[in-house]
Amino acid sequence: MTEFPATVASPLSRSLSRPLLAFTACAAIYMVLDAYGLRGPWMASMKIVPIAILALLALRSLSGLTRTLTLCALTFSALGDLLLALEFSHGFVYGLGAFLLAQLIYAGNFLRAADFRSRRTALRGVPVLIAAILLARTLLPAAGELAPAVLVYLLAIVIMALCAAAHRSDSALLFAGAVSFMVSDTLIALNKFVIPLPMAGTAIMVTYYGAQLALLYGLARARA
């Protein structure tokens, strides 16, 4: 994807096309190298480059409190990426904590323009709640001593997805980004606690990078 939706002014779309191409290229390079099993601090640094590019796009395409909150969410996401990529004691818990803050900030951002009384919100929100309940029943028994932390994070991402579902902009892209984020985190949890998944790393990053990009697109569209 190389341009923002038609609802965003065309001059802005043209100004963002190069950063979006850079985002796609950097994300693809990281995923290829990760699939080959390369590890180390330099790989952790490469992992956050696409998120840094999205932060640049947020600076250019958003404004006011929406931009501030989005940048904070992206910052904590990048921190979570680093903590999960660097192998050290309790790294998973710290990474989970960073992403927890990112999810809560995103939720607060979406909540500012949420309408939970609409039929559309219910149609989107009910499947999210059903999926969350089924996921909790699968993950929590398998998570052992990490079950409380996993439960808190699951609640946070469900809240984020419900707030995206209720956004008054009616942006399907915004909701798609929230659902993709849930899918990415579900893959991480299943791969870690339940059963190793084939090509888990690639699937996790495709849905994660796609989620962050879709959330930014959705917010830019809502602003337009």
Shape: globular
Helix and strand element order: HHHHHHHH
* Low-confidence runs: 1-12
Structural class: mainly alpha
Summed up, the helix count is 8
Distance N terminus to C terminus? 18 Å
Gyration radius from CA atoms, angstroms: 17 Å
Strand content range? under 5%
Largest sheet composition? none
What is the count of structural domains? Answer: 1
Family: Belongs to the TMEM86 family.
Protein name: Putative membrane protein YhhN
Pfam family, one: YhhN
Transmembrane segments: 20-38, 44-62, 92-111, 123-140, 146-165, 172-191, 197-220
Notes on the structure:
81% of the residues lie in helices and 0% in strands. It is mainly alpha-helical and 224 residues long. It has one domain. The longest helix has 26 residues, at 10-35.
List keywords for this structure.
single chain; 224 residues; mainly alpha; TMEM86B-like; hydrolase activity; Putative membrane protein YhhN
Give me a quick take on this structure.
It holds the Pfam family YhhN. It is a multi-pass membrane protein. Residues 1-12 have low confidence and may be disordered.
Write the layout of secondary structure elements.
Blueprint: H1 10-35, H2 41-61, H3 64-85, H4 91-111, H5 119-143, H6 147-165, H7 172-194, H8 200-223
